[in-house]
Amino acid sequence: MQAKEGAAEAAAETSVLVDSGKPQRKPRATQRKLKASTASADTETTDSSDLRDSAEAEMLAETANVSVIAIQDALVTSDGPPSATFEAPVSLPPLAAIRPLTYLSAISVDPVAAVGFVRWKVGSGMGHVEYFSVNDDAIVILTSASIQINVELEHSAMVAKSSPVIFKVWAGVEMLSKCESSVRREGDRVLSVLQLGCTLPAETIIRVEYHGAGVVYSGSRLVLRLLNT
Predict the structure, then answer these.
(1) What's the superkingdom here (predicted)?
(2) Which residue of 52, 79, 154, 164 lies most exposed, with the fewest beta carbons within 10 A?
(3) What is the rounded CA–CA span in Å between residue 194 and residue 120?
(4) Selecting from 2.40.30.20, 2.60.120.40, 3.30.310.10, 3.20.20.140, what CATH number does the domain 100-228 have?
């Protein structure tokens, strides 16, 4: 019996010696800790990389904004657009604005009583010889044209029984317009004004027919301005 117990103890000691002779393995907990540490290091590296990427993106965005602002400033301050894409539309002035001034100013020569046509003479003008001609009470339009007509008649003050129409403007046998009110009065003299625009054929005759009280005084004016031909 003692021999068996001794043999068992010897076998146990031999097992312990054999086990103690094997190389020691690293504890698994330590391996997990190292992996966790490695993961933590990778996370820190990733976070650092993300921060750098974010900073670079912000710098690029700021650079792009600065570039856009610089381009806009250059477009505003430059003498002309860099290309046809930025060319602003150009509006041309109307033809009447760029045409050289062409007009005839005629002056009434003597008093005219109602009902009668006012007689004229050339007072002043510019470049009007080939477009307008004065012939006593008629102004002749020599070529088809668009014109502006201004009539300024100085005449006797209206009375209660006088015609409501002060004067009429005729183109041949067609009445272009009529004046029924005055703009200024000084004593027994009144100023009546009418302005109109029209397009007339060549050889049209313009006349002013007085219908008011008393007379039209000399010095009244009829102005024809050429707008277009």
Answers:
(1) Eukaryota
(2) 79
(3) 17
(4) 2.60.120.40
